[in-house]
């Protein structure tokens, strides 16, 4: 039985949805804030070598700058629903936005690795609740008939932010300083906060004063933190051949089981897992998480392969990624309109089939292709991501009750980020392992190595130079073969997802 303290505080009646220029300003300010948090998932990735050199640490140690943010965000995401109920949706968003700006400024001013890690944790904790609450607030300020447009805005930023991150981060780092990668957030937050306070405070939700589930929070931090550390360290330590990785795996498993039992049986859980019993919500979330993970992991793998194998600069690799953002911006409004006119399952299935086609195009990759041919699949993938992300998000959030939207959006964002981390780690490990296997097989099939060395020597190379040339050719081919095999798996996953989507009910049925 709920106590008196658990009752919701009195809240003013919800005003009518915004219209015209006020709606544009409110949607712009919320979406901009969402974009900044998503951008920071990847914006510091390419700056790590510069940051490490500036702070006098190794590049390996510098990767903690990325890990600390990811762990903090992953831990705080499922708490978003509880925070919104405890402090109000709009207030939580505003405090998170202000904290995010302060943490960003402190990251830019940091003079040691320890300091920047602490500030990145603070940045992740403040930014995480803003991701699901953005969707909640957009749905409140838009008229019901334009709910698809509201979701489209959040979906577009969720896809474009992490993709533009390395491009923006690389350009700023090369032309200015890595510190501006973090300072960049501050002026945009100063622009957003007054607009959010002025336009969205009337849409504040009722507050529920409930006890704090300390046990749930601690268990969540333990298993998510251990999992993220395992994913980040696994490749360098040969995965489960390392006692450290085995220990982290056990901590993750035990912590997860304890967390699930506690949260499912607790009266006032910090994470409302009971929402997952709604098949109309949990199934779209599962398929969405896999689709999003494939999209983002692909956007990590493509520039990685281009830079390590094709000797592309960070800027050129960024040009290859850029077309996806352009097509996503164009395709999201189209997907939003179609979502109201036809069964969403057709759009989602078609999106995954299109992604399978994109994977098939990438399977044709060879080292003779030009930048334009590498960019073509990115352009195509922009359309697939728009239809998959938008339709599944609308379907998932449409299956829950209005008072559950904040919690549902928080869990959706959590599973999306968690699955993305697993896929990125798994795909890069698969690519590296596949490259080693392909290299061994290629070397074994070389019939007359000495003849090749003699031919190169006849063209003026020394034997040492000739060996280096052949070794480089083998490495390039092995890396490319593994890269192509990777997209064979993505093609299979996309085809499977296009079929599984039909086990879901229609969107309007999920709301009943």
Structure description:
By secondary structure, this protein is mainly α. The chain has three domains: 14-206, MFS general substrate transporter like domains (Growth Hormone, Chain: A); 213-269; 278-512, Up-down Bundle (Growth Hormone, Chain: A). Residues 1-10 and 508-512 have low confidence and may be disordered. It contains 21 helices and no strands. It is globular and about 85 Å long. Helix content is 77%, strand content 0%.
Using the alpha-carbon principal axes, give the shape: globular
The tally of beta strands, per DSSP, is 0
What's the CATH C level of the largest domain? Mainly Alpha
CATH A-level architecture of the largest domain: Up-down Bundle
Quickly count the domains. 3
If helices are DSSP runs of H or I spanning 4 or more residues, what is the number of helices?
Answer: 21
Beta percentage is under 5%
Largest sheet: none
Poorly predicted sequence stretches spanning 5 or more consecutive residues: 1-10, 508-512
Brief digest:
The protein is mostly helical and 512 residues long. The protein has 21 helices and no strands.
């Amino acid at each position: 039985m709920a106590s008196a303290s658990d009752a919701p505080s009195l809240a003013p009646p919800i005003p009518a949805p915004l219209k015209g220029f006020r709606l544009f300003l409110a949607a712009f300010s919320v979406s901009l804030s969402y974009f900044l948090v998503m951008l920071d998932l990847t914006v510091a990735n390419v700056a790590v070598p510069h940051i490490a050199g500036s702070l006098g640490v190794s590049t390996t140690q510098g990767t903690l700058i990325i890990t600390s943010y990811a762990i903090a965000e992953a831990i705080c995401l499922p708490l978003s629903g509880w925070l919104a109920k405890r402090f109000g949706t709009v207030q939580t968003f505003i405090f998170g936005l202000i904290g995010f700006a302060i943490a960003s400024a402190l990251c830019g001013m940091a003079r040691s690795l320890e300091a920047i890690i602490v500030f990145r944790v603070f940045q992740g904790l403040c930014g995480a609740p803003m991701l699901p609450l953005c969707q909640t607030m957009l749905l409140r300020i838009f008229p019901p008939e334009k709910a698809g447009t509201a979701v489209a805005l959040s979906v577009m930023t969720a896809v474009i932010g992490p993709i533009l991150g390395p491009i923006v981060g690389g350009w700023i780092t090369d032309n200015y300083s890595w510190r501006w990668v973090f300072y960049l957030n501050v002026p945009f937050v100063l622009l957003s906060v007054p607009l959010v306070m002025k336009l969205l405070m009337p849409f504040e939700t009722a507050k529920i004063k409930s006890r704090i589930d300390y046990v749930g929070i601690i268990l969540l931090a333990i298993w998510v933190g251990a999992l993220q550390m395992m994913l980040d360290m696994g490749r360098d330590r040969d995965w489960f051949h390392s006692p450290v990785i085995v220990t982290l795996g056990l901590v993750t498993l035990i912590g997860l089981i304890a967390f699930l039992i506690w949260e499912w049986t607790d009266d006032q859980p910090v994470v409302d897992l009971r929402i997952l019993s709604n098949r109309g919500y949990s199934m779209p979330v599962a398929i969405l998480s896999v689709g999003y993970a494939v999209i983002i992991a692909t956007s990590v793998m493509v520039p990685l392969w281009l830079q390590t194998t094709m000797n592309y600069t960070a800027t050129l690799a960024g040009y290859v990624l850029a077309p996806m953002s352009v097509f996503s911006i164009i395709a999201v409004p189209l997907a939003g309109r179609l979502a109201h006119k036809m069964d969403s399952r057709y759009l989602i299935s078609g999106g995954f089939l299109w992604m399978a086609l994109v994977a098939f195009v990438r399977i044709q990759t060879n080292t003779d292709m030009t930048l334009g041919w590498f960019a073509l699949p990115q352009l195509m993938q922009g359309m697939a991501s728009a239809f998959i992300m938008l339709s599944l998000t609308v379907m998932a959030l449409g299956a829950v009750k209005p008072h559950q939207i904040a919690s549902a959006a928080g869990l959706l964002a959590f599973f999306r980020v968690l699955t993305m981390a697993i896929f990125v780690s798994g795909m890069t490990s698969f690519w590296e392992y596949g490259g080693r296997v392909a290299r061994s097989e290629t070397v074994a099939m070389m019939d007359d190595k000495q003849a090749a060395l003699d031919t190169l020597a006849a063209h003026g190379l020394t034997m040492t130079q000739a060996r280096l040339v052949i070794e480089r050719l083998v490495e390039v081919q092995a890396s490319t073969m593994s890269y192509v095999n990777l997209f064979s798996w993505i093609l299979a996953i996309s085809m499977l997802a296009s079929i599984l989507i039909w086990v879901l009910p229609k969107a309007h049925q999920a709301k009943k």
